[in-house]
Design brief:
Radius of gyration: 18 Å
Number of domains: 1
Helix content: 10-25%
Number of strands: 15
Largest sheet: 6 strands, mixed
Structural class: alpha+beta
Distance between the termini: 38 Å
CATH class: Alpha Beta
CATH architecture: Alpha-Beta Complex
Shape: globular
């Protein structure tokens, strides 16, 4: 049952993501909150995101299918915050795209920001976790000298949610099953136990290079099974397909793929 937080908080952002803010929500009598219609659009599970950060090649099996070496330290890049979408919004293919790919990922949502965060205290900075589909236009990403941010930042290329699951409800983010299906065919079926760098290590590493802010989303990488790695030839998304992505305990996303419409 979905419940409405109107009048309780303006949005799931800023101080709401702090330990105190989460505890305030935890103490609510949810049965007294108004119900949300099942037909209502569900937006992203976190708002006012300053940084949408992605970790590359963070699964050993994905590095192998990409023919690349497992990195010695986290590879990270930024995805435009304007790419963030709701978990059930359509995936709109960029004009002329024939290389749009999928990547189910565990998303970390930062609750308390900072720099130079000690790895031993890093989990204290986590508000919770969510499902992320790090959609990628591979031609933009790799051709013409490569433009990772461009290939990852098309409108709607960052569905997040459906839920922000608080860290106390995820005892071990390093042991979660995650999967992705296209038209009912399962392409990705992995576990976060296969990550090269765990949640605490990623947070500590990133905070040594940049300021992490409340509401920041860190997409922690994807397991094997992306379209680019299909054999005998790559397989990409096309009009009218349906994508379902989920993570154990964090819920499922579902998106319809649609062709771009010129305006």
């Amino acid at each position: 049952m979905r419940r409405n937080l109107d009048g309780i908080v303006d949005d799931i952002a800023g101080d709401v993501l702090s330990d105190a803010g989460m505890e305030r929500l935890r103490r609510l009598d949810t049965s007294a909150l108004p119900e949300v219609s099942p037909d209502a659009r569900l937006g992203p599970c976190v708002a006012s995101v300053a940084n949408f950060i992605c970790i590359g090649l963070n699964y050993r099996d994905h590095a192998a299918e990409a023919g690349m070496t497992v990195p010695e330290s986290p590879i990270f890049f930024l995805k435009a915050a304007s790419a963030i979408a709701g978990p059930f919004d359509n995936i709109v293919l960029p004009g002329g795209s024939a290389h749009t790919d999928w990547e189910v990922e565990l998303g970390i949502v930062i609750g308390r920001g900072g720099t130079n965060i000690d790895e031993a205290r890093a989990m204290d900075h986590v508000a919770g976790y969510c499902v992320v589909n790090d959609l990628s236009e591979r031609k933009l990403q790799f051709e013409n000298a490569g433009q990772w941010v461009m290939g990852k930042s098309c409108p709607g290329f960052g569905p997040v949610g459906p839920f922000l699951v608080t860290r106390d409800d995820v005892p071990d983010p390093g042991d979660l099953r995650l999967w992705l299906e296209v038209d009912g065919r399962r392409h990705q079926n992995g576990t976060t136990a296969n990550m090269v760098f765990g949640v605490a290590e990623i947070i500590s590493y990133l905070s040594g290079k940049m300021l992490l802010c409340p509401g920041d989303i860190i997409a922690t990488g994807t397991p094997a099974g992306v379209g680019m790695g299909m054999e005998p030839a790559p397989v990409y998304l096309s009009d009218n397909q349906t994508v379902v992505a989920g993570i154990e305990g964090l819920g499922d996303q579902k998106q319809k793929v649609t062709a771009s419409v010129k305006r």
